Amino acid sequence: MSRHRHRRRAPEKTPQQKVVRRALLAGGLVVVLGAGVGVWTSGDGGGAPAGAAAGQTTDGGSTPTGGDTSPSPTGPSPSPTPSRSYALSQTPRTIPAVRAHTPARGPGWRPAAAHRVVVSDADLVDEGRLIASELGLKYAGERDDVRAGDLRLALNDDEGADPESYAMTVRGGRVTVSGPSDAGVFYGTRTLKQAVRGGGTAPEGVVRDEPAKPQRGFLLDIARKHFTPGWIEDRVRELGDLKFNELHLHFSDDQAFRIESDTHPEIVSTPHLTKAQVKRIVALAASRHITVVPEIDSPGHLGAVLAAHPELQLRDARGVATRGAIDISDSDAGALLDDLLDEFAGLFPGGQWHLGGDEYQALTRSDPEASYPQLAAAAREAYGSGAGVADLATGWLNDRAETVRAHDRAMRAWNDGFYRGTSVRPAADLVVAYWTGKEIGARPPVEYLSAGRKVINYNDEYLYYVLGEPQTFVYPTGERIYEQWTPRVLRGTTPVPARYDGQILGGTFAVWCDRAESQTQAQVAAGIRMPLRATAQKLWDPGTPALSWTRFRALADRLG
User: Going by C-beta distance under 8 Å and a sequence separation of 6 or more, which residues neighbour residue 326?
Assistant: First the structure.
């Protein structure tokens, strides 16, 4: 969980005050250029940025010169000297791009084996050890002393700030990454890692950064296709470096149930992930500040469960089985699902849960009540004479929500699990996972938003990578996401009005494995590489990116 520390700090001087004061003290020449103030560096080797421009920031990672790389120092000295001068630094090039950078004059910071990583708080040990191992530095633990070359991680007193925000300050041959929580500090270390990887040196100056959206996810369908634990762990590391914070695992569907179960081992498919393997994935994700969001989809998409429990299969009036659908009029059906929800809540301790709720085939019939008289009768018994099958399905979703709510989880369900015109209303705390407008009786996103619902963007027009490209799906491209999509584009290609932006919690890029054998794991990883990076950029900052797609792609290649 995010942790906050509060400390008093003296008010900082403005950049102009710092520059003028340092120039007067050092006898340096101050040159006014437009709105900025420049100064030749003096020999004090530290303190405030010697040439910080007055309040100069960049949006979306743009730089004063428009260059793609950070400049190298003009000489080998690790800190300013009286005989050296430096151009104003350029914004570090990262994915996603940093949202603001105040440039300064100085050599920047380059990692060396003798440099230390020190932390101000025990809560930052994991972040400190990780960045030390990645950059080849010495991890020194909690330290108050200051040495040349130090990388310091600190919790700050920015009360009320976004917990995922951070500042990265490079000055005097040292770096400080600070934030109101360990998550924010972690994201600062991702920026530092990429800055060094892309340019060799973290540029002088101050980065101030935070995400536009609090939920930035990646969905992986491991039900239709088995992915090895090592492959999933590689994706977790990739997601962490891109500042994603959710991994949505869809592990139950018609084709398979892919995680070991103690309460119902009869439903588990081969191959599958063991609980020990899942725990390692969850732990790795937590170390990268990624919440694993489990999904056991119901009352549809339960074919693998029903293969072991045919007595719970939904059948129509003629006795014909309905693919993937459980009979929600049978109390044993609810008991089975609740067993699984309770069991897996212990395996996935994060605060998020996906209930599914989509594509219940009974509701695709022209007259569900006539086709499924047992469902119609159960609906009337539970909710009154005017109730129908959609009411019963909504009640099912609410019952499963009640089970999960007892485990203190925030919940979401697919938008086609929210039915129009029912007397039974979906639970008020259910977030809409909006993926399509193609279902029967499709409701536009504004219907949910105007009713006050919060929404997560899973737009199948841009964010669905469906193996084998069935039906009308085509593999999404990073370029299209980068140039056209924003979190407000929930359905098709048209954004919802800006007034609803605050209700859109974020977005999720999804890999669905409808034709599982059409791509190997390696092909999936390669195919989603640029779409993931484009999605990360637009969730962090939905504005028009500073870089062209060609330059963004080249940056991605340079960063690895």
Answer: 298, 299, 300, 302, 305, 306, 312, 313, 314, 333, 337
Residues 6 or more apart in contact with residue 171 via CB below 8 angstroms:
46, 47, 48, 49, 104, 106, 204, 205
Angstrom distance (rounded) from CA 166 to CA 149: 20
At 460-511, the pLDDT tens digits run 999 999 999 999 999 999 999 999 999 999 999 999 999 999 999 999 999 9
> Which one, of 75, 19, 81, lies nearest residue 44 by Cα?
81
Name the amino acid, one letter, at 478.
G
Q: Helix or strand or coil: residue 135?
A: helix
Tokens of 386: 């005017």
Q: Say what the pLDDT of residue 84 is.
A: 66
- The DSSP bridge partners found for residue 32 are 37
Structure tokens at 172: 């005097």
Q: 521-540 vs 229-241: helix axis angle to the nearest 10?
A: 20
| CA proximity to 150, closest of 12, 46, 9, 236 | 46
CA distance 309 to 300: 14
Q: Which residue has the tokens 């800006």?
A: 498
**Model confidence at 62, in pLDDT bands (50, 70, 90)?**
very low
Which residues on neighbouring strands pair with residue 116, listed in sequence order? 138
CA 131 to mean position of chain CA atoms = 20
**88 close to 50: Cβ distance less than 8 angstroms:** no
Residue 300 has pLDDT above 60, yes or no: yes
Phi-psi category of residue 299: left, alpha or beta, with phi > 0 → left and psi -120 to 50 → alpha? alpha
Q: CB-hemisphere CA count at 13 Å for 25?
A: 12
pLDDT at 236: 98
Sign, CA dihedral 514-519-521-526, equals negative
183 pLDDT more than 50: yes
pLDDT, one tens digit per residue, over 212-223 is: 999 999 999 999
Cβ 434 vs Cβ 491: under 8 Å: yes
